[in-house]
Design goal:
There is one protein chain. With 557 residues, this protein is of the alpha+beta class. Among the domains are: 49-273, no CATH class; 323-361 and 421-542, no CATH class. The protein is 16% helix and 24% strand. It contains ten helices and 26 strands. It has helices spanning 32-41, 92-109, 144-160, 190-193, 209-216, 261-272, 295-298, 311-316, 437-443, 495-499, and strands at residues 12-13, 50-60, 114-120, 125-126, 174-183, 205-207, 223-225, 230-232, 235-241, 244-247, 253-256, 323-324, 329-335, 347-352, 355-363, 371-377, 380-386, 404-408, 418-419, 425-426, 428-436, 458-460, 472-475, 478-481, 524-527, 535-542. The strands form eight sheets. Strands 2, 3, 4, 5, 6 and 9 form a six-stranded mixed sheet that branches. It has a five-stranded mixed sheet with strand order 12-14-15-21-22. Strand 7 and strand 8 form a beta hairpin. It is globular, with a radius of gyration of 24 Å. 47% of the residues are buried. The model is unreliable at 3-46 (pLDDT under 50).
Length: 557
């Protein structure tokens, strides 16, 4: 279940809004521009991909004028003239574009192994209650009010449009989405203001069949539609936008731009079975912006561009089969995972029976052709090309990205990177992951895989020499939560290891070290990392002065 509360460290812009709305029943992928765009994005796959149906609807609330929720209960249907991301009108085409983004995202990050077949259903329905009535308390763990929202939404849609043929969607391969009017209750405003000015907004989350059964009882078999012949057994609840006006200490309100692309992709990831990889007990980061299922990844680039899933997330979903290394080797080649012309290459280095390292190359611009973002503006798809990070195109400022983002050539552009004080541009490198399947198995059901900062199931071995992701750090700007940086990648002449006079080696004696989670010496060392590149190399040594494999090991038996 995805439910994120994040501190707001984002750039802000001020503007005013106007409203209007014209829903349409036509499929969004019909214009000449869209057809051309899809042909450019097509991939040649060696096998038939798995298909996931995504069926979405749009629900608004009874109008109200309360100040404790965002908006008046209806969708923002104005035709915005402001140069912002995710501009209104938030109508059929707007939500279709966000589903198209999810389709493009999963096609690329799965190397064509997952195909999203999405359907946005009409008409827009109006729920029988105001937003506040569907908002659970912040201490709730069962979210009964949201269950009622989902039940009402699908019942009303089915009654208003009985021609919808739900039986075309395989119930075992379909995830349902309710896009609702308003803003998500998904960022920690209380930490910023000392109170939450919108406490009755609706939180974003994924509700599984088992989760629904907890509230409706064991007799629950799904929400009936199509005359009771089909049962909806899951739903993702998502807001129309995460952008909002917030009070400013300088007087007046400021407009904070936050996107829903990361939210959509992460909640689909939840449906696929991925657990949350942030600390679900306190909301702090667990793996930073190095994967999808962390608040930092979900809100990377303010929620508009999520990074690729981590090596373990892809391994868990069956999108990649790591190559296991059992003996010492030199100059092991490691292509960047965002290169679209090759299958992902990830190496697995066993520590114990159910504990191992995963090694992957994550480069922000693996094709070395800058980054291209496709946005829709005024009904047209426009490609925007950026060289590195010019003004208005950075993780903290996306002023140049106005419109609705529907694709990015390399999603790993949202990884930590940028310029150092010496004007050197840092673009990624090798990531080392420490995976403990004992922790994963034990904590998976409770969704607490990374809740114990000392023994995470999926952990980044940070090259900066400080395992500080999720830790409270005291800085000149006050206390902040560690979320990873460009120097957590392993590469030749990593400046933080050079400045700290730390050997650029990952071993049982390094920091971080290569020992097992119970402190046992793994006798594994990785070093000689090459310069940051789309094809990097490294050496691995298995065995040391204490223990070495027999000559000729391993033998094929």
């Amino acid at each position: 279940m995805i439910l994120i509360y994040l501190l707001l460290f984002v750039a802000v812009n001020v503007y005013s809004q106007q409203q209007s709305f014209l829903p349409t029943l036509s499929h969004p992928l019909t214009t000449e521009h869209e057809t051309k765009f899809l042909s450019l994005q097509s991939r040649n796959h060696t096998s038939v991909p798995e298909t996931l149906h995504v069926v979405a609807m749009m629900a608004q609330f009874q109008k109200d004028s309360v100040s404790t929720t965002t908006g008046d209960g209806s969708f923002d249907t104005s035709h915005s003239t402001k140069k912002i991301i995710d501009p209104s009108p938030h109508d059929f085409s707007y939500f279709s574009d966000h589903l198209l983004f999810a389709k493009n995202y999963f096609a690329k990050v799965s190397n064509g192994k997952l195909y999203i077949d999405y359907h946005l259903l009409a008409p827009v329905i109006t729920l029988p209650k105001a937003m506040k009535k569907y908002s659970p308390s912040k201490t709730s763990t069962v979210f009964k009010e949201i269950d009622t929202l989902v039940m009402d939404a699908w019942h009303i849609l089915d009654s208003l449009n009985p021609s919808i043929n739900f039986s075309q969607f395989d119930s075992n391969r379909t995830v349902f989405i309710v896009f609702h009017a308003g803003v998500g209750r998904d960022v920690d405003l209380a930490s910023t203001y000392g109170y939450d000015p919108r406490p009755f907004d609706i939180p974003t989350l994924y509700k599984s069949f088992l989760n629904f059964k907890k509230n409706f009882g064991n007799d629950f078999i799904g929400f009936p539609v199509d005359g009771g012949t089909y049962r909806i057994k899951n739903s993702i609840i998502l807001p129309e936008t995460e952008s909002r006006f917030l009070p400013s200490s300088f007087g007046g309100d400021v407009f904070v731009q936050l996107g829903i692309n990361g939210m959509i992709c992460a909640n689909i990831g939840s449906h696929l079975g991925l657990p949350d990889l942030f600390n679900t007990k306190n909301g702090r980061s667990g793996i930073g912006r190095f994967g999808l299922m962390d608040g930092e990844g979900i809100f990377a680039w303010n929620g508009f561009i999520p990074p690729e899933p981590s090596a373990w997330e892809k391994y868990f979903l069956g999108w990649v089969e790591p190559q296991t290394i059992l003996s010492s080797q030199t100059a092991i080649t490691l292509p960047a995972v965002s290169m679209t012309d090759v299958e992902d290459t990830i190496y697995r280095v066993p520590i114990a029976e159910r504990e191992y390292f995963l090694v992957e190359n994550r480069i922000r611009d693996a094709k070395e052709d800058s980054t291209t973002v496709w946005v829709r503006r005024d009904g047209l798809i426009v490609p925007l090309k950026f060289y590195r990070e010019p003004r208005g195109y950075s993780s903290g400022n996306q002023d140049s990205l106005y419109g609705t983002i529907i694709d990015v050539d390399e999603f790993d552009w949202s990884l930590p990177g940028g310029y150092d004080t010496d004007s050197t541009y840092y673009n990624g490198g090798i990531l080392l992951w420490h995976i403990d399947e004992n922790v994963i198995e034990e904590k998976y059901a409770a969704n607490e895989i990374n809740a114990d900062i000392k023994h995470r199931g999926v952990d980044v071995e940070q090259a900066n020499g400080a395992q500080d992701i999720g830790e409270v750090l005291n800085t000149v700007f006050g206390a902040v939560i560690g979320s990873g940086s460009a120097f957590d990648f392993w590469f030749k002449e990593n400046p933080l290891r050079v400045k700290k006079k730390i050997s650029n080696t990952f071993s049982p004696k390094s920091f971080p070290n290569a020992n097992s989670n119970d402190g046992a010496n793994s006798h594994i060392s990785l070093n000689n990392f090459s310069e940051r590149n789309a094809r990097m190399t490294f050496d691995i040594h298995i065995g040391d002065d204490e223990i070495k494999p027999l000559a000729g090991f391993p033998k094929n038996v």
